[in-house]
Amino acid sequence: MHDDLSAVSWRTSSYSTAPEGLCVEVADGIPGLVPVRDSKVEDGPVLVLSATAWAGFITGLKSH
Known about the structure:
With 64 residues, the protein is of the alpha+beta class. It has one helix spanning 51-62, and strands spanning 9-12, 24-28, 33-38, 47-50. The longest helix has 12 residues, at 51-62.
């Protein structure tokens, strides 16, 4: 597990386009892992997914 996320660069997911500010941010640069957070709560909890789990999640989103 990667505990120190202080140096990661966050970006708004291309799947977060809601005008109400309901955005998901993801961080790049951690091999094999995809940290995810709520853009409205920058110091809140972070969900860290394996790259495989993230890919499956995105595939599921695209199919709906």
